[in-house]
Fold this sequence. Notes:
single chain; alpha+beta; H-NOX domain; 2 domains; two-stranded parallel sheet; globular; H-NOX_domain_sf; Heme NO-binding protein; NO_sig/Golgi_transp_ligand-bd; heme binding
Amino acid sequence: MHGLVNRSIQCFLGDTYGADLWAAVAAKAGAPVEGFEAMLRYDDALTCDLIQAATLRLGKPRAALLEDLGAYLVTREPLRRLMRFGGVDYTEFLLSLEDLQGRGLMALPDLDLPELGLESGAAGRFTLTVTAAQPGWGAVFAGMLRAMADDYGALALIEHVAPPVDHETTGAGQTGPGQPAPVRLGPQAAAQEWVTVELLEARFASGRRFDLAAMTTGA
């Protein structure tokens, strides 16, 4: 796993729950308490152990913790700007999500971002398909989309849908978001999850200030 991912988990846990919680989680997972180098790579198993240790320590479901992580990430201004660059309103932002992987790779070519696919339906309904080497990214994106709805001032119902995960066997099987099939993850398997969005009101509130010129000029 890219060190930036592990570093983000470290910052999320430390900023949200305190240094003592991070130290306890790191010790349980066998991670360096001093933290991760953002540009190095680490074993994927260590990232899974970090999340598992955090859920046990906090007594929180894994998906809920990952959604909180996603919401936290878009409070970081560099990522927020990358996301807001996708559109002037929440609908345009959603429609730009398929390009997010490419935009991220332009900045960090070795960052393993999930593949995103968006289907739009009637009455402001969208389904985001998240395909990644490891399960959990769907929950992260659900948290990000909730936070970005607030950022844009939109009112939306957002739900994360993930199939059951069997870590014991290799191979993968997915259906649509209505009837998820078990996913069996091996070293080369892909995990597929979904995030459904029902946009109730695009301009529900004023949203947060965003100046695109500041991004393009480096201000």
